[in-house]
Specification:
disulfide bond; membrane; glycoprotein; 19% helix; Immunoglobulin-like; alpha+beta; 960 residues; single chain; 17 helices; nine-stranded parallel sheet; globular; 25% strand; alpha-1,4-glucosidase activity; Spasmolytic Protein, domain 1
């Protein structure tokens, strides 16, 4: 025994001496050889890696155990676009399984996109069955690739920008590994300005690459923690990032993989990509502007759906309605308060014991309630969870129709003690979990290749819509969530509203557990501590999907996406209208089918702050119809927090106040100050709904974001990269919501621009604002500080209590003149708000383009039609508001195509001090349906002399 121990120590010392004799790698450019728990000098050296004894307390994230140089593969043959690789004899072994001996790499140009695929030679590997659109958006720049063996004989490749030869992705840092359940690819980046990777809570929009951080990606039923720094994996998976290079050009990278995975960032700067299944399929998008990167990425994966117009209105919800009368009371109180409001959303409370497609006794009047809402020009959205209780008609109809459910891989694994409780489930391999219903549930396999599951799902919605005329669908718990998996005493055992039924147990111990407890489980497991598994809070990784052809280990991250695809079909076929689907779990291309809310946040200021970042990120992920639970979901909100959140949320496309069962109500009318602030914020939103809808139409047509980081349009301004809590609403507006307690003034940064900025909130409305950091009043009675960029024309409409009523009102234009050029341009898109848009080229809509120019003698507004439909024409133009007009207008000279226009002189006002001009028609300035395009609206200018203009006003009996 002592001899064997002595031999082990000698070998360990020799190995340690060898590893310490290897060339040290700078702390900034390491690849962690011990990303799993248990790093120590002995364990590190046993893996053949380098251990650094010099722990630096000032840089605690630096890996002490790291891969040595020479780790990886080498090229043994190549063509112009392919390589065959063999594991280098000098490389250490993969710590998490035997590496495949040979790999093949393929480099492909897809338009201006570069795709890199790496997989084992002669081995079929899983790839996600997600049908990307693969639409190519042209770019002014190109990418090219190079590959070789470096001076140590190790394969590396680079992706470069053709225009300036900038290297965007450089794997010479080493560390390529590829075993069955551990794949690793690392690369140097050209800049530390990195954005994206989700879904997580990020406390700043720009990642901090001064330290090492790992962002795991495994869809998890996990409420976000915005208070403490963390890397918790949340509901969705988005392995996409964008880097802004030193010269302001930008590129994006997608790792297309649906297995548990993670991205580590380091200060070199560099990234380490790890996945525990599938293969490497990497796409690089050239930009070169940030917005072009997103357009290219989103067009490739699938451009966003066009939401129904009503879904851009204000929505209210809570979990914990006791009966339908409480819902009716909220609607009545909201209507009485005068708060513009469109949609009521009802959580699982309406169901009979939380079973999908049922109505509980306390909500028996739901049918007539939906009809009453529609009579008031309002809408109803209901929730559905994917988990189906296995002892009622919906499940029975599913089985009879051939619908598939997630199953055990073999009958021998089925827990008969549970299965035999349910006659419909016994003698099946259907995997049973626990969610909200009283009894065990099955989980539809939406990846069913026969489409029987989708057809059954659609039929259930169609049948339910015959009872209750819902307008929108909210799908929740679709990571999918299963309560208490692998636990003997799940949380619901202490919940009086849920029976103590046995939770799902997976094979986490035993001989064949490689899917449940893989060699490397990722930080999606390790960060949650002992007794955590990939199957925690969900189903077993060894379950089978896609008609038994795939494992849940491979496809879990696709569950929310696949349910959203099926549910969009269900919405359209049941309602016959556009509607909107909102999903909790998402994956690349989810935005093509539905929107997203940021999950079960908490009523804290930190959550308001991170919601602003989350909305910007999901616009980058191609899901612009996104928002947070306004005022907070978990915990009791307070008056000031709720007020500020209402103000901030009024700019988010999905705008919903929602809170948790058992928490105090947070309807905005409960506090006079919040009621007043919500009326004001919602009125601003409803006035600008034509602009917001136009942004969404453009997003669905060309993949542009609706809300975006300020640096997207001002990438040459280095100050914009740190503006996490300011954002652009389209390109016309900068919004800077208040996100802290007791704030009376707000520091706002307006980028330097020759076009200038104007205030469009309570402080100095319409007045030109200086660029740079400035402090602006931000009282509780003010709207969020909001500014419009010069050079933009924004369509507006007289607001009303609902979007439907607003759509019947006259339209307006807000024209903010460029300070340097004294011109502006913009557009509006208009349709009926509810027809399903299957193809933008065949859709019935109107698109008008506006151009405004002014000189010392006259102003001209030119309106051209890109497309015009009488049935989808905007309402007549009633008023025009112009910021930055330096000339005195003669309102008696207003003409449309040479014909005089009657102007309301009492409401048409110009101030030479603010340079704001409001022009209001006696009836309407223009009726788009009665004019020939192009339309030229003109007026003359009286004089540049203020005293002469004052005399003109006096003689005209005008109010000055």
């Amino acid at each position: 025994m002592s001899i064997n121990l002595f031999a082990i120590l000698i070998n360990l010392l020799l190995l340690t001496s060898f590893c310490w004799s290897l060339n040290p790698i700078t702390p900034e450019a390491r690849i962690d050889c011990y990303p799993d728990p248990g790093a120590s000098a002995g364990n590190c050296v046993a893996r053949g890696c380098v251990w650094d004894n010099n722990y630096d307390e000032s840089h605690p994230t630096v890996p002490l155990c790291y891969y040595p140089e020479g780790t990886g593969y080498q090229i043994i043959s190549q063509t112009e676009s392919t390589v065959t690789l063999r594991k280098s004899p000098s490389s250490i072994d993969n710590p998490f399984g035997s590496d495949f001996t040979e790999l093949e790499g393929t480099f492909t140009n897809i338009g201006n996109i570069v795709k890199v695929s790496i997989k084992p030679v002669g081995v079929k590997r899983y790839t996600p069955p997600v049908p990307f659109s693969q639409e190519i958006v042209d770019s002014s720049d190109r990418l090219h690739y190079q590959f070789n063996n470096n001076d140590k004989g190790i394969f590396n490749f680079v992706i470069k920008r053709t225009s300036n030869q900038r290297t965007l992705f450089d794997t010479s840092i080493g560390g390529l590994l590829f075993s069955d359940q551990y794949i690793q690819l690392s690369a140097y980046l050209p800049s530390k300005r990195l954005f994206g990777i989700g879904e997580h809570i990020h406390h700043t929009l720009q990642h901090d690459l001064t330290k090492y951080t790992t962002w795991p990606m495994l869809a998890r039923d996990q409420p976000p923690n915005s208070k403490d720094p963390n890397q918790n994996n949340l509901y969705g998976v988005h392995p996409f990032y964008m880097v802004v290079e030193p010269d302001g050009k930008a590129h994006g990278v997608l790792f297309f993989n649906s297995n548990p995975q993670e991205i580590s960032t380091g200060p070199a700067p560099h990234v380490i990509y790890r996945t525990i299944g599938g293969q490497i399929d990497m796409y690089v998008f050239p930009g070169p502007s940030p917005q072009e990167v997103i357009q290219q990425y989103v067009s490739f994966i699938g451009k966003p759906f066009l939401p129904a117009y009503w879904s851009l209105g204000y929505q209210l919800c809570r979990y914990g309605f006791n009966n339908l009368q409480e819902v009716k009371d909220v609607v009545s109180n909201m209507t009485s308060s005068g708060i513009p409001f469109d949609t009521i959303i009802i959580d699982i409370d309406y169901m009979d014991r939380y079973k999908d497609f049922t109505i509980g006794d306390k909500f028996s009047g739901l049918t007539s309630f939906a009809d009453d809402l529609h009579n008031k020009d309002m809408r109803l959205t209901l929730i559905w969870d994917p988990a189906i209780e296995v002892d009622y008609d919906t499940f029975k109809r599913g089985l009879l129709s051939g619908a598939k459910f997630i199953e055990w891989s073999d009958f021998s694994l089925v827990p008969k003690g549970i299965q035999d409780l349910y006659p419909l489930a016994e003698n099946t391999k259907v995997m049973l979990g626990v969610v909200w219903p009283d009894k065990h549930t099955a989980f539809p396999d939406f990846l069913d290749i026969t489409n029987n599951t989708r057809d059954w799902w659609v039929d259930e919605f169609k049948s339910f819509h015959e009872k209750v005329k819902f307008d929108g669908i909210w799908i929740d718990m679709n990571e999918p969530s299963s309560f208490g998996t692998n636990e003997d005493h799940p949380w619901y055992f202490d919940n009086p509203d849920h029976p103590n039924i046995t939770s799902l147990k997976c094979m986490v111990k035993g001989i064949d557990t490689k899917l449940e407890t893989p060699p490397y489980a990722t930080q999606s497991v390790y960060q949650w501590g002992d007794n955590s598994y990939l199957s925690t809070k969900t189903l077993c990784m060894s379950a089978v999907t896609m008609n038994g052809t795939q494992t849940f280990y491979n496809t879990k991250n696709l569950y929310g996406w696949s349910e959203t695809v099926a549910t969009k079909h269900a919405l359209h076929e049941s309602t016959g209208k556009r509607g909107t689907v909102i999903s909790r779990s998402t994956f690349p291309s989810s935005g093509k089918y539905g929107g997203h809310w940021l999950g079960d946040n908490t009523a804290r200021w930190e959550d308001l702050q991170t919601s602003l970042i989350g909305v910007q990120e999901f616009n980058m992920f191609g899901i612009p119809y996104v928002g947070s639970d306004v005022c907070g979901f978990v915990g009791s909100t307070n008056e000031e927090l709720c007020l500020r959140w209402q103000q901030a949320g009024s700019f988010h496309s999905f705008f919903r106040n929602h809170n948790n069962n058992g928490e105090q109500a947070q309807w905005p009318y409960l506090w006079p100050s919040v009621e007043a602030a919500t009326i004001k914020a919602n009125t601003f939103r409803y006035r600008h709904l034509p602009y917001l809808f136009t942004l969404h139409f453009e997003a669905s047509r060309s993949g542009t974001p609706v809300i975006k980081p300020v640096f997207f349009d001002y990438v040459d301004d280095s100050n914009t990269f740190d503006l996490s809590h300011q954002f652009l609403w389209g390109s016309a507006f900068i919004v800077a919501p208040v996100t802290g307690l007791g704030v009376k003034s707000q520091v706002v940064y307006l980028p330097d621009s020759q076009d200038g900025w104007y205030s469009v909130y309570d402080y100095n409305y319409g007045v030109n604002m200086s660029s740079g950091f400035r402090t602006y009043p931000a009282l509780l009675t003010y709207n969020s500080p909001t500014f419009i960029a010069g050079g933009h024309i924004v369509p507006r409409q007289v607001p009303a209590a609902t979007t439907g009523a607003s759509r019947k009102n006259p339209t307006e234009l807000l024209i903010a003149l460029s300070q340097s050029m004294k011109n502006a341009s913009g557009s509006v898109v208009w349709d009926d708000g509810e027809t399903i848009m299957m193809d933008v080229n065949k859709h019935d809509y109107t698109e008008l383009v506006f151009n405004f120019n002014t000189s010392t003698t006259r102003s001209v507004l030119m309106i051209r039609q890109k497309k015009f439909s009488i049935s989808s024409s905007p309402m007549p133009l009633k008023a025009i508001e112009i910021f930055g007009l330096p000339y005195y207008p003669d309102i008696s000279s207003v003409k449309a195509n040479g014909i005089s226009v009657s102007i309301d002189k009492s409401k048409s006002i110009y101030s030479p001090f603010t340079e704001v001009f409001t022009l209001v028609g006696t009836d309407n300035i223009l009726d788009y349906t009665k004019l020939s395009f192009p339309v030229e609206l003109t007026w003359n200018h009286v004089t540049n002399d203020y005293m002469s203009y004052k005399q003109y006003l006096t003689e005209s009996n005008r109010i000055f």
